[in-house]
Amino acid sequence: MLLLLTTGFSQELSASTILDSMTLAMTPVNAQSTIRQIITTSRGNEREFEYEMFSGNKGKNVLLRYTQPNIVRGNAILLKNHSDDIWVYFQRTRRIRKLATSSKNQKVEGSDFAYEDFSGGDTWKAEYNVSRMDDLDDLYVLALIPKPAVSTGYGKMVLFVRNSDYYPTIIKYFDKNMVHEKTLKIEDIRDIEGYPTAMKMTMLNHLEDSTTRMEIISITYHVTFPEDFFTERYMRQ
Q: Is pLDDT of 173 > 60?
């Protein structure tokens, strides 16, 4: 009887309810982390970076500041309004350049992550039409199609979400022609300060046969930022 009740409850959950629960689980108000990023090209060459990541207001604003290697140390990227506004700072020239909004689907430092991939999912419900697909074992499966007015490089996303804690384990990205472009594998999920946290994420680029792995070295959610933290001034710190 318990199994039947659990199964019935699972089937009654709407796609919007599951997406709301997922968004709540994976978008804390603020976060500060140190991340190692390893890019592997189609030829097997590797490039490694390390950067500090500051996320505020549930991913609405994000600041990345590179610390390794020396050639990019001090460079910074500021993403505001869920990557609709993007600034890039170059330490060597001490200059800041604002990118066009259309740049949000471009690669970040040659990685397989686009600028928009760094924004939180807090706006997904407003920007995407969401539907529920057939469950897979202990996973909910959601399809997200962008609404006509939304600016994004993706034509569809398919999310595989754990029914135990509503945390995603896989996100598949399709381009505007519905070609399967990338797959994000979300692994080593731990409880950090009360939040499920993926300590490792790997983006597989199926079109270019490249991968980008991100590993969290340290992270905390018990952080607050000054009111003017996510501004051009703080990019130069």
A: yes
Long-range CB contact pairs, 67-74, < 8 A, 24+: 67/34, 72/109
Strand spans (E) along the chain: 31-40, 46-56, 61-68, 76-80, 85-90, 95-99, 128-132, 139-146, 156-162, 168-174, 180-192, 195-205, 210-220
What token pair was written down for 203? Answer: 């983006």
Long-range contacts of 66-70 (CB under 8 A, 24+ apart): 66/109, 67/34
Q: List pLDDT tens digits, range 176-216.
A: 999 999 999 999 999 999 999 999 999 999 999 999 999 99
Residues 6 or more apart whose Cβ sits within 8 Å of residue 121:
22, 23, 26, 27, 59
* pLDDT given for residue 25 in this prediction: 87
Burial class (CB in 10 A: 0-12, 13-18, 19+), 1: exposed
DSSP state of 81: T
The correct CATH number of 15-235 out of 2.40.400.10, 3.40.50.360, 2.50.20.10, 2.70.98.40 is 2.50.20.10
SS3 122: helix
Lowest-pLDDT choice from 25-29, 38-42, 53-57: 25-29
Q: What is the pLDDT of residues 221-230, one digit of tens each?
A: 999 999 999 9
User: Other C-beta atoms within 10 Å of 17: how many?
Assistant: 14
Asked if residues 153 and 174 have their Cβ atoms less than 8 Å apart, the reply is no
